[in-house]
Write a structure and sequence with these properties.
Metallo-beta-lactamase, Chain A, five-stranded mixed sheet, six-stranded mixed sheet, 7 helices, globular
Length: 266
């Protein structure tokens, strides 16, 4: 279950979205999340077991194939920012041999204790290239609007990486300017898995008798961060999208919002 209240028979068939952001001045390509890799059988054994038990997958195309539709290859991506290290966000990092990876600082411990050193780990220790990975540290953060910790990534106010605690250690979001006159898009990752959580119609599901009943590592921190995202809904021309935004996907799949098209600014 993802929300409370919810129906025990409810089933969500949700996308796992990745986002391409291009700097308007120097045309640098920044990818937020890599979705799911097609050869998911090569994940650590615990992740494969988890997928088979809970997540029936259908992967019509991966990120490399998506980029190719607009004439881009992995070598054209300068930065990959992973919202967090769950299997449905890390994709296949191997083709991106020239990209710098940016992740939340707390993700470093997950890598250090990854598979195969820890046979029960769901994250591979070689997921990220050590020489090309930046783990964000407390010195990187400054307050931004409702968010206590954010990084002005390019130093020009065009794209911010936002600390987004609660879901998994190291979880981050992205706030990007889409027009110079004040239009923005907020990519919320797995801060919430359903829009009822963002609007406040539902609360985060949790059953103390079942360790897997909550989608978040820290329910209280996740709820606090969801409330900060909710504050964005009252700001004109800020679009909020979830990583598994089923309503948005159903309204836009196969359309011009997907690369080589673009999501329209508000």
């Amino acid at each position: 279950m993802l929300t409370n209240p919810s129906s025990p028979d409810a089933v969500s068939v949700a996308p796992s979205l990745s986002f391409l952001l291009r700097h308007s001045t120097d045309q640098r390509n920044f990818v937020f999340d890599l979705g799911i890799r097609k050869d998911w059988e090569n994940f650590p054994p615990k992740t494969i077991e988890w997928i088979k038990q809970y997540f029936p997958l259908r992967i019509p195309q991966d990120v490399v194939e998506s980029l190719a539709k607009g004439g881009l290859s992995p070598s054209d991506v300068s930065t990959i920012c992973l919202s967090h290290l769950h299997f449905d966000h890390v994709g296949d990092t191997r083709p991106f041999t020239e990209s710098t990876f940016v992740v939340g600082g707390a993700a470093e411990a997950l890598i250090a204790h990854g598979y195969p050193g820890n046979p029960d780990a769901t994250i591979a220790s070689d997921l990220l290239p050590s020489a090309r990975t930046k783990y964000l540290s407390p010195v990187d953060w400054q307050p931004l609007g409702p968010f206590p910790r954010a990084l002005d990534f390019y130093g020009d106010g065009s794209l911010y990486i936002v600390d987004a605690p609660g879901h998994l250690p190291g979880h981050v979001n992205v706030l990007a300017r889409t027009l110079p006159d004040g239009a923005w898009i907020y990519l919320a990752g797995d801060s919430a898995h359903h829009w009822n959580l963002i609007t406040g119609k539902s609360g985060v599901a949790f059953n103390p008798a079942n360790a897997y009943s909550c989608a978040h590592h820290n329910k209280e921190a996740a709820e606090e961060h969801i409330a900060r995202i909710r504050a964005l809904l009252g700001i004109p021309r800020v679009r909020v999208l979830l990583a598994h935004d089923e309503p948005w996907f159903e309204a836009n799949k196969g359309g011009p919002a997907f690369w080589p098209g673009k999501i329209p600014s508000l």
